[in-house]
Amino acid sequence: MRPSSRRGSFVVPVTLAALACSLLLASDEAVPAAADRGAVLVLRVDSIIHPVALEYILDGLEEAKRSEAQALVIEIDTPGGVLDSTHEITTAMLGADLPVVVFVEPSGARAASAGFIILMAADVAAMAPGTNTGAAHPVGLGGTDIKGTMGKKVEEDTAANIRSLAARNHRDVELAQSAVIESKSFTASEALEKGLVDVVADDLEHLLDALDGRTVSKNGVEHVLHTRDAVPRELEMTAFQKIRSILVHPNVAAALLSVAMLAIYFELASPGAILPGVVGAICLILGGYGLSVLPVSYAGVALLVVAAVLFLLEIKVAGFGVLGTGGVVSLVLGLMMLFKSADPAIRVSIELIVGLALVAAAVVAFLATMVMRVHRQRATTGREGMVSERGVARTDLSPRGKVSVHGEIWDAVSEAPVAAGQQVEVVGIDGLLLRVQPR
User: Which residues are paired to 404 by β-bridges?
Assistant: First the structure.
């Protein structure tokens, strides 16, 4: 019985140790949830506002709700973006169950156009020193005003949206509207002084200190922020979102489509190069993805198609650069009209268009020059390639005999007598009979 009792003596401590370990593991698993509860979730948007940015912000709102964060901070630096995506973002922000803080930072950042609308939709609007916001007036192609009824309609719709957001968050309605109607911009200190933003803070740490103790009313619920000691947790874009965010930038999409057209044009003009064809196909697919996400003008797409057709005809018809020049012109016009948006951020930059036009012109000029050289060259193969070639008479030609040309023995005829061993020049060919003359 003694061994049995000895084994029993080990059972109790082992059991207690297992229970202790399980409790420790359980407590460790509970720590992140407890730490997240009351934390501040931080997003970083430093691109134009587009559907990928919308997806990222919606993911952030969902994650903040799931982890029971006390607030969501969106750090923003944007020149503007797609109006539809902006409206969906502001709608999601207004409907969120927790306070949403929009912080324009770092110093030198901006929240222009669509970014200004998002800032006005925030429960707490904040800016860092050296930042600016505003300039939300809708514009057309080339930065010009949208004329006529459509321009008035877009302007009034945007102004009404800004008035609604500013009034909801107790901000200066008239001043907010002036950013749309008069394209006014404001520095951080001006925006704070005139009641457009609530806080000016140097960085996220100072912002959280400034927010501590602030009460935010959200959907009928009062939220008291305790952010001084809160642990900010950043939610980054996924790798796939980062890649897509790059691809849907108007400049990137336009560049990919242009490179695709030129690479495929080069491949068709010089069959067998392979690499230009592969690069062109990949760029075409990636550029097409950008077009599928951004607001596209059908006129711009049609002009790009015309440019591609003209490039192909340049190869088939050998227009000596005329068709290629027309393709370059169509390419430039298509890029200028490619995207349909009232926001200047959703346009292809003039610098990029000029650069792509120069590259396209260089490629067309190079290939056109090569084609012209080929057309000017004398044929070196077939029947035409024999004319002007030199050979040696193997027999006397009086007027018919044998000659050697290119190491081959041919029947030949000459109007002038030719002695065996004398050099001759081919002046014509009739079937398998060469016409020659003495040299």
Answer: 392, 409
Q: Which of 382, 424, 24 is nearest to 412 (CA)?
A: 424
pTM: 0.72
Residue pLDDT, tens place only, 207-255 = 999 999 999 998 889 999 999 989 899 999 999 999 999 999 999 999 9
Section 130-159 average pLDDT: 67
Tokens of 279: 């690069």
Shortest CA distance to 137 belongs to which of 340, 345, 347, 348? Answer: 345
Half-sphere exposure of 150 (CA within 13 A, CB side): 8
d(CA 160, CA 167): 11
Hey, what are 131's tokens? 């930042």
| pLDDT score recorded for residue 389 | 87
* Measured torsion, CA atoms of residues 360, 365, 368, 369, in degrees rounded to the nearest 10: -150
CA atoms of 178 and 137, how far apart (whole Å): 9
Rounded Cα distance, 107 and 115, in Å: 16
Q: What is the pLDDT of residue 130?
A: 96
Q: Of all residues in the chain, what percent carry a pLDDT higher than 90?
A: 56
* Whole-number Å distance between alpha carbons of 194 and 197: 8
With a cut of 90, say whether residue 50 has pLDDT above it: yes
Over 60: is that where the pLDDT of 322 sits? yes
Say which residue, 382 or 367, is predicted with more confidence. Answer: 367
Say if residue 399 is preceded by a cis peptide, omega within 30 of 0.
yes
- Integer Cα distance of 73 and 80 in angstroms: 19
pLDDT confidence tier of residue 138, bands split at 50, 70 and 90? low
